[in-house]
Amino acid sequence: MSTHRPPTLAPSSQPSWRRRRLDPDHSLGLRLTLAATAAFLVLVPFALLALLVLGAWAPLHRLDTAVTHTLHDYAVDHPAWVVLMRIWSDVFAPMPLRAVALLLVIWLLRRGARRLALWATTTMVVGGLIGPLLKLLVGRDRPELLDPVARAAGFSFPSGHALNATLAAGVLLLVLLPYVGRGVARVALWVAALLLTVVTGLSRVALGVHFTSDVLGGWLLGVAVVAATTAAFTSWRAHAGLRPVQPARDGVSPEVERHPEDA
């Protein structure tokens, strides 16, 4: 008497989704997973900060108010400082930075680096749209001072200057890194990107038109957007069979210097 055993499934040669996410040799492997995770992790502190702002958390409000009044007292007593901060804030406002990004995109298109130009455009546009939307959703009023040294319209959180400075600095840094080698020029590029981001944000607090948490929120959101679009670009590189890169070291497309059509 013969017995029929239930058919068994042959072992699948296709690795599981989890293993593919952690496989450095897979086209959507370890590097993309880490980049996407980094973008998510940056969004977590931003989301927590936004919730604290929405909930009017007392310790955060006291800290914001103390910093604002301290810097405002200094600004009132130092008019030259106010002029310097106004100039910096105007020169590196969102619209001038977007104009610089547009020139960069045009330059990339003329070199035939269409995908890299699309990445730069997407980064600036996505961040530029998310910022005003979040301002409306949070609806936080700007600091109220008896003798303001500067004025700004609209809601406060997150800071548009801080957000767009972070976006522009990230785009310029990751596009230009392949051109500067590994010496003093690379350090200078990093320092310039950090100065653009940090000083632009601090200028808004110094002028009394933003709270410190507004600027911190702009920085966090900007980093999250750059990380997310960089993860997407890394995904395309993997699909295209291009060598893996470390964006903070190599830029997002080191081939653009020699072979723009690969970018």
Automatic annotation (TrEMBL):
Residues 1-16 have a biased composition (Polar residues). It holds the Pfam family PAP2. The chain crosses the membrane at residues 28-58, 91-109, 116-138, 158-180, 187-207, 219-236. SUPFAM superfamilies: Acid phosphatase/Vanadium-dependent haloperoxidase. Residues 114-230 form the Phosphatidic acid phosphatase type 2/haloperoxidase domain. Keywords: Hydrolase, Membrane, Transmembrane, Transmembrane helix. Its EC number is 3.6.1.27. One of its GO terms (molecular function) is undecaprenyl-diphosphatase activity. Residues 1-20 are annotated as: Disordered. This is Undecaprenyl-diphosphatase. It comes from Micromonospora parathelypteridis.
